[in-house]
Amino acid sequence: MNKLKNLLSSLNLGVEYIGLREVETRKISLDVRNEIFEEIHSSIDHGLMVEVLINGQFAYAATNSFHLVDVQACALRAKSLAENASKLSIYPFTLQERPVMVGEYKIPNQKGFDSFRTKDIHDLLIEVSTKLNVSNKIITRTANFELTEIKTIYVSSIGSEVHQTVLRSSLGMSAIAQDGPTIQKRSWGYDLNAQLGMERIDRDQLFREAARVGAEAEELLTAKDCPSDTMDLLLAPDQMYLQIHESIGHPLELDRILGDERNYAGWSFVKPIDFGKLKYGSSLMNVTFDPTIKNENASYLADDIGNKATREYLIEEGVLKRGLGSLESQKRLGVLGVASQRASDWNRAPIDRMANVNLEPGNSTLNEMISGIENGVYMFSNRSWSIDDYRNKFQFGCEYGKLIKNGKLTTTVKNPNYRGITTQFWNSLKMLGDKSTFEIGGLSHCGKGEPNQLIFVGHAGPVCLFSNIEVFGGGK
Amino acid sequence: MKNLDNKLFKEYTVKIFSLLKSDEELSLSLVGESTDFTRFSNAQVRQVTHVKQSRVEFKFIKGSKILNFSLPYSGTLEFDCTKTQIQLTESRKYIEGISDDPYIVKPFFYGNSFNEKLTTLPVAEEMIGNIHMISNQVDLAGILVSGDIVRASCNSKGQSHWFKTRNYSLDYSLYNDRQKAVKSLYAGTIWNTDELKNNIDQSIIKLNLMNRDSRKIPRGSYRVYLAPSAVAQLIETLSWGGLSMGAHQKGQGSLKGLWEGREQFSPKFSLSEDFTLGLSPQFNDAGEIAPEALSLISEGKLKNFLISSRTANEYKLTTNYAAEQEALRSPVVLIGTLSQANILKELGTGLYISDLHYLNWSDRDSARITGMTRYACFWVENGEIVSPIEDLRFDESYYHLFGSSLIDLTDFSEIISSTDTYFQRNVGGLKTPGVLLSDFKFTL
């Protein structure tokens, strides 16, 4: 019997249900700027969340002490809070919202902390920084690496026992170029967080990307601003990740639709009656919740209450089918959801989140898409994002743009931005890139919840073509 | 609580410093809390969580090499010391693989301080009952946060700072049947049900204004009043590279025009970092004590950027002991002459905006920012509120907002405490008046 199960059996609270979730995180990150080693940070975090159910009310209490007396005190605090709150509960939950799950998740044969050598990464990042230095106009060059291992064990009084170990890494670089008052930036890799260990390091790829990133940052210094116009908009996968995240992922979260997030992250324009009916986007659009893709950033066996994760269509041929929400939210709202009740860490209660939310590829090659554009712009790499609290009116900015005239890529433009309204925008999806344009990314800082939580998510998508979009450039 | 106890923490640090070898130095900072979080929706309890946690951030220095690490801290001496000793051993191994830091900031004795303000608060269960009773007839969503917070910093040179406070905040919004909302914050160190009732009653009065039909405002420029809570969003966003010297030196700053003297704000606009607000400790993570007040922008002109000791070392400048991220910790905007009674009259015809949402730089070179209106925002005609508005997107430059467009600031300010709870409960807040603007550009 593992330690956590022993701890669980030692707690005698007289409640309907107890769950214990232990999370142990080990992380190391290194940063280099302008060929100078800037920072190494290593961290260990380890704590425990107790969850109880009394009179239809769940309550939580967290501690980073594993002494029985502290855990017992913590559990009693959860019990007291649940008893009191049950008089004012928003909904009477039952054990139906806590499935029994037993299983283990770990990707085999990954290279973790045992394969990590400080000096090797230190030297590699300095070399990447050197490769970014393509001209004396590149004033700032950064390269970063982060390796994280998260071990989560969840046990419950109804027999759940789930062990999940995730090894995650990120590797990013950026170049900032300056010429007088003009400053431009290009970056690579910050949106490519993935469940990969040291095996992700490909020196040739890194040096190739560094040379490109440096050259494109310098190129932007002499580029004209993106024109202000309504035109076709081609978006690269490294912009699509955030477009999917902000205008599909968040509005489909059931806790937002229920109004639980109204005071912080916001509400949603989606109504419960929209499921099965709302034409969210063009019929080319198929969006999945898919925690089964190997190495994608937010793959897992089960969420943080032991609900088994499966691939589901959220939007099928443009029609809204299913939301992103827990068994609790599904029960309250009466709509279908997914296994996505997740907590950012041991010290936060699980809430409705995204995990891997992907736009499935279509049938068009990149050449077919470009050749069909008479007047348009191709935008790469997100640099700015903002959307309203109902997830309707958005504005995104990108690092790098290429104008398209009469079916051909032409001039490079700086400060490319676009704005739109969510369902209008997705219904203007005209062509969807095929598998050759499909890329998988991962973000590490999705914020929502009260108390606030930052969590990692995965997004994947092909190059996408939207028609009649309002685009514009920089300047006062 | 062991993890928030000054005496236990002192014993722990004495023991840890004794583990250092002669060529090693160490500074450490403690972040801790014991907090009850209660989420409300429809004035009922959605989720309730108690969190007891502390963690220690270390800066381990050997010669000119530095390594940062962090560990959980429980307040159990033997357990914490054993874990720290293991990590120190590991750090000695890691640090060999890295090069010298030419801009290293070494520990220094900046003196000692002790600041512990603990009032008596009711238990969360009682507060929840008060909130439910007072807001019974109205749809309230939000979060009640209450408990103790600790920040501490000490180093192997003998420096020691301790800051502990007990407070609460009810960050909430009220909704009508049309799903229109007003937002408010009730925060402090002394819980008073009469004040809570008054706060919620005032919000209900504002909510009644939201019952009128909403008006869709076409995109364009309008005369605008931004309430203090909306201005607060603009000030907070300046922490994102706006007033950081390091960010500007690296090409990531957002007020470069102001820095180079190409641009300036209105002479009516002054901003300072002012720790007399008392919402956050004057010491930073390294234990350095910032000036009690530091002028950043005075009468429209840049006086100081925030400069950390590391930035000062790198660019050969003088530090003003900003935190490493060079973000605002206790900003105060100077008041103007516009009285509360004259706000609508002076606005005349235009938009009254109580809150802004989801701000982000749209073009840093031009100090341009985009975001949304949120909560109680109204169309005003001839000094009278006509109707709530449908949310609008703006895209504007700070140089215009706080420059040529700035007509006046209110003659009163509001203190807005931080409600940020990412990772742990934050400390801090800001103080700002409202602003009247001649034109503000809405784009969607």
Descriptive report:
The complex is a heterodimer of chains A (476) and B (444). The longest helix of chain A has 19 residues, at 203-221. Helices cover 20% and strands 40% of the residues of chain A. In chain A, helix 3 (118-132) runs parallel beside helix 4. Chain A has helices spanning 3-10, 68-85, 118-132, 203-221, 237-249, 254-258, 327-333, 366-371, 422-427; strands at residues 17-33, 36-54, 57-63, 102-105, 138-156, 161-179, 182-188, 224-225, 229-235, 287-289, 312-316, 319-320, 341-342, 351-352, 356-359, 375-387, 393-405, 408-414, 417-421, 429-432, 439-448, 453-461, 464-472. In chain A, the strands form 4 sheets. In chain A, strands 1, 2, 3, 4, 5, 6 and 7 form a 7-stranded mixed β-sheet that branches. Chain A has a 6-stranded mixed β-sheet with strand order 12-11-10-15-22-21, covered by helices on one side. In chain A, strands 9-16-17-19-23 form a 5-stranded mixed beta barrel. In chain A, a hairpin with a 4-residue loop joins strand 5 and strand 6 (161-179). Chain A is of the alpha+beta class and 476 residues long. With 444 residues, chain B is α+β, with helices and mostly antiparallel strands. Chain B has helices at 6-17, 77-95, 124-134, 193-209, 228-237, 245-249, 256-259, 309-315, 343-347, 398-404; strands at 24-41, 44-62, 65-72, 112-117, 139-155, 160-175, 181-188, 220-226, 271-274, 293-298, 301-302, 331-333, 350-363, 368-381, 384-388, 393-397, 406-409, 414-417, 429-432, 435-442. In chain B, strands 1, 2, 3, 4, 5, 6 and 7 form a 7-stranded mixed β-sheet that branches. In chain B, strands 8, 13, 14, 15, 16, 17 and 20 form a 7-stranded mixed β-sheet that branches. Chain B has a 4-stranded antiparallel β-sheet with strand order 11-10-9-12, with no helix packed on it. In chain B, a hairpin with a 2-residue loop joins strand 14 and strand 15. In chain B, helix 1 runs parallel beside helix 2. At the A-B interface, strand 1, strand 2, strand 3, helix 2 and helix 3 of A face strand 1, strand 2, strand 3, helix 2 and helix 3 of B. Strand 2 (36-54) of chain A pairs parallel with strand 3 (65-72) of chain B.
